[in-house]
Amino acid sequence: MSKLPFRLGIHPINWVGEDVKEHGEDTTCEQILDDIQRLGLTGTEMGRKYPTDPEVLREELNKRGISLVSQWKSVLFSDPAYRQSELDSYRRHAEFLQSMGSVVISTAEVGGSLHFDPRRTPHEKEVLRLGEQEWYSLAEGLNAAGAIAREHGLKLTYHHHGGTVVEQPEEIDRLMELTDPKLVYLLYDTGHAYYGGADPLEVLRKHYDRIAYIHLKDVRPHVLEEARAEGSDFVGCIRKGVFTVPGDGCINFGAIVQELITRGYDGWAMLEGEQDPAIHNPYAYASRSLQYLHSLLEQQPGTERSPQL
After folding, report:
1. How high is the mean pLDDT of the chain?
2. HSE (CB half, 13 Å, CA atoms) of 66?
3. Burial class of residue 15, CB neighbours in 10 A (0-12, 13-18, 19+)
4. Which residue of 150, 165, 220, 229 is most buried, as measured by CB atoms within 10 A?
5. Which residues are paired to 70 by β-bridges?
6. pTM of the model as a whole
């Protein structure tokens, strides 16, 4: 059981890759959920190996005492031509999550992204940053989607994400400025903040009042440096092992956990690794990461991080 003052769960991406399909391809839903139960955690996000039938999924989760906290939802709001179809899809997504008792919708814009934008070709090599009108269209779409989420008792939490148009610290700032704080919240991701060039602690402090959901992910800086020297894109970085669980990289989680405790954060945070499970055993890494996070409760603010996993 987690001793942290906020609610700690774990993402199935530790066992099965979402963007790198070969990672954990042979892993079953039962393996993932059994491991989560063994870890003593009670929250998860939707994963591609989970049953899509709500009744079957609910049964599998309930018998292990696990809640479905959220599910990723890609949107393409930066192009107004997609607005209505995207909102219709968002409503169906919200209906599903409401039926599962979820609390937030992890939401990210795919327009301009290298891997996720359906309008891009396989031979392009860079993210297409947004122009002014695209920013305003994105904000309007997110506000409308946020209203749908609220109708269903959920919060839209925007996931700033590597390889997308809301990745860098100034892009996170812009999105927060343009959207309605009562409709659009922030999914604060430590690993993606670092990947996007931000200091994760600064992002937390600057936007805390908008944060309604958290992903706790670490980064191996030497691997990231090597990947960028080779010109690797976001998915290439995952394949190289840039990301890992808290306690196995360079991010100062001691300061982050202390900030969350001081601020009184009581929402959900998901433990994430997003690495090859054949090399990095998901259960073992998660178990040691939990020990690391719990050890931070006994340390004073500013204490150096524990040894790597």
Report:
1. 95
2. 30
3. buried
4. 165
5. 45
6. 0.95
